[in-house]
């Protein structure tokens, strides 16, 4: 959601006229087109990355290969870590350019959008660092079998397994039973000829 706020506010109100007469639109962040483009790009990458990893998390339990699970977690860890860095750069870059902006009539119109983009880029740093830490925690779990069976996590661990139901005829006092097929097998059964090669 933070990424939508950042790139949405820059796209909607991040380009203004320098003065009321000039039809040319300039970036509100000190007229630096790179600042607006960078904020929009990081916001869009973060938005689509969130959608991808949301779908990956939905299907994570259906990935049976430990190697594929490990790759998915490493991809999540790398993506979250890199976006933490990209949002940090975006926050510093946008805040620096906003500080250098001379306040003209056009800049006053988009000032709230610029402040919102800077604020939510800062909050995005915190969110993506938290996501990177969660991915690191998931990576450290490794091949823990609880990742494979979530339905068994809800069971109470203090309750022992139920015994085999009585009265089914399975109980026996014999300690050894003879095998079910006691006939000796003939080396060549009747009607079958061993082929000679």
From TrEMBL:
Compartments it resides in: Membrane
- Name the GO cellular-component terms: neuromuscular junction; synaptic vesicle membrane
Instruction: Name the PANTHER family for this protein.
Output: SYNAPTOGYRIN (PTHR10838), SYNAPTOGYRIN-3 (PTHR10838:SF8)
Q: What is its main location?
A: membrane
Organism superkingdom: Eukaryota
Compositional bias ranges of the Polar residues kind: 171-181
| Gene that encodes it | Syngr3
Give the matching InterPro entries.
Marvel (IPR008253), Synaptogyrin (IPR016579)
What positions does the domain MARVEL occupy? 1-140
Q: Which UniProt keywords apply?
A: Membrane, Transmembrane, Transmembrane helix
Give the residue ranges for region: Disordered.
169-197
What is the protein's name according to its record?
SNG3 protein
- What family is reported? Belongs to the synaptogyrin family.
Q: How does it sit in the membrane?
A: Multi-pass membrane protein
Keyword Oxidoreductase among record annotations: no
Kindly list the residue ranges recorded as spanning the membrane.
Answer: 38-60, 72-96, 116-136
